[in-house]
Design a protein that fits this description.
This protein is mainly beta. Helices cover about 10% and strands about 35% of the residues.
Length: about 60
């Protein structure tokens, strides 16, 4: 059975990211994020370079 990791996000953006690690290698990533009420103050406390939300660009870092 593949390993499943569920990340719950509540700092500025609400939702979850589910990562299913396959035994044969690789993973499936499913994100369910609500960015309709982004809390910019919270995000800037985590990353001072964070700017107002005008668009979204997603990327994934892998090892």
């Amino acid at each position: 059975m593949p390993a499943v990791v569920l990340y719950t996000i509540s700092d500025g953006v609400q939702g979850t990211i589910k990562v299913v690690h396959f035994l044969s290698g690789g993973a499936k990533v499913v994100a369910d994020l609500d960015v309709s009420v982004v809390n910019l103050t919270t995000l800037q406390s985590l990353d001072p370079d964070c700017q107002s939300v005008s668009g979204y660009k997603w990327y994934i870092h892998t090892k």
